[in-house]
From TrEMBL:
Location of the region described as Disordered in the Swiss-Prot/TrEMBL record: 1-33, 58-85
Xref: Pfam families: Pro_isomerase
SUPFAM superfamilies with a match to the protein in the record: Cyclophilin-like
Superkingdom: Bacteria
InterPro entries: Cyclophilin-like_dom_sf (IPR029000), Cyclophilin-type_PPIase_dom (IPR002130), Cyclophilin_A-like (IPR044666)
Alphabetized GO MF terms: isomerase activity
Protein name: Peptidyl-prolyl cis-trans isomerase
Keywords from the named record: Isomerase
Biased composition (Basic and acidic residues): 1-24
Low complexity: compositionally biased ranges: 66-81
Length: 259
């Protein structure tokens, strides 16, 4: 027969085990949250809202690097209004990126992301992306090549912001707060706040889990995906998991056309 002392010890032991289980569960959740946060930073535009005050267009539609950067993280740092809608919101478009490492064709659906497609056509028509570097490669946690900064530093932008779009296009977020951005997906980078996309975008070369806060607006063709994967195989400068790609990538010319 179990004595009262033995019963007391048993209950204390069971309580301790329950506490340990709760602590371990909390630690696992914290690790997952930290992993998501670290991954998300890889596709956040550097320097907050300052990204959108540099590399802006002058009144004649040409690129100008003379605009002074702002330290404000707010989208109100935009110094230029979003381009007037000029694309067919019911049509599909093709963005062709001619790079030194291979051509990348991106299929875009204006019905799902009209503001994003319109912005890319506007910028491409102005030659904004021509002779710009893809400044960031991430090979740990998430798998992306980030491009679209005329400064080549991660802090450049067109001087305006566009709204987030199609955020539910990849499905509902799981318990860890992420969705899978499949290999071949092209999505917008942002400052970490809503509706702060500019010109920077990332090319997903391997399935990556991220919060559904980055507008997925296009899909690479097979040849383009392979070209990005070949860049990723070379790794990051210095052997890190995040930084400038060892195999430099330059967008020599970008063009957006209606299918």
């Amino acid at each position: 027969m179990v004595s009262s002392e033995q019963r007391r010890r048993q209950l204390a032991r069971e309580k301790f085990e329950r506490q340990q289980q709760r602590r371990e569960t909390a630690r696992r959740k914290a690790r997952r949250r930290n992993t998501v946060i670290a991954a998300a930073l890889a596709v956040v535009v550097a320097a907050g809202g300052a990204a959108f005050a540099t590399g802006a267009f002058s009144s004649d539609g040409k690129k100008s690097d003379a605009a002074a950067p702002s330290n404000s993280p707010s989208p109100s740092a935009s110094s230029t209004p979003e381009p007037k809608m000029a694309v067919d919101a019911k049509a599909k478009y093709d963005m062709a990126l001619k790079t030194n490492t291979g051509d990348i064709r991106i299929a875009m659906d204006a019905a799902k992301t009209p503001h994003t497609v319109n912005s890319f056509k506007y910028l491409a028509d102005k030659g904004y992306f021509n002779n710009t570097k893809c400044h960031r490669l991430t090979t740990q946690g998430i798998y992306v090549l980030q491009c679209g900064d005329p400064q080549g530093t991660g802090s450049g932008g067109p001087g305006y912001t566009i709204p987030d779009e199609n955020l539910s296009g990849l499905g509902k977020a799981g318990a860890d707060g992420t969705v899978t951005y499949p290999a071949g997906t092209v999505a917008m980078a942002n400052t970490g706040q809503a509706h702060t996309g500019g010109s920077q975008f990332f090319l997903v070369y391997k399935d990556s889990k991220l919060p559904p806060t980055y507008t997925p607006f296009g899909t690479m063709d097979a040849a383009g995906l392979k070209a990005v994967q070949d860049v990723a195989k070379e790794g990051v400068e210095g052997g890190a998991g995040d930084g400038a790609p060892k195999k430099a990538v330059t967008i020599e010319k970008a063009a957006v056309t209606k299918e």
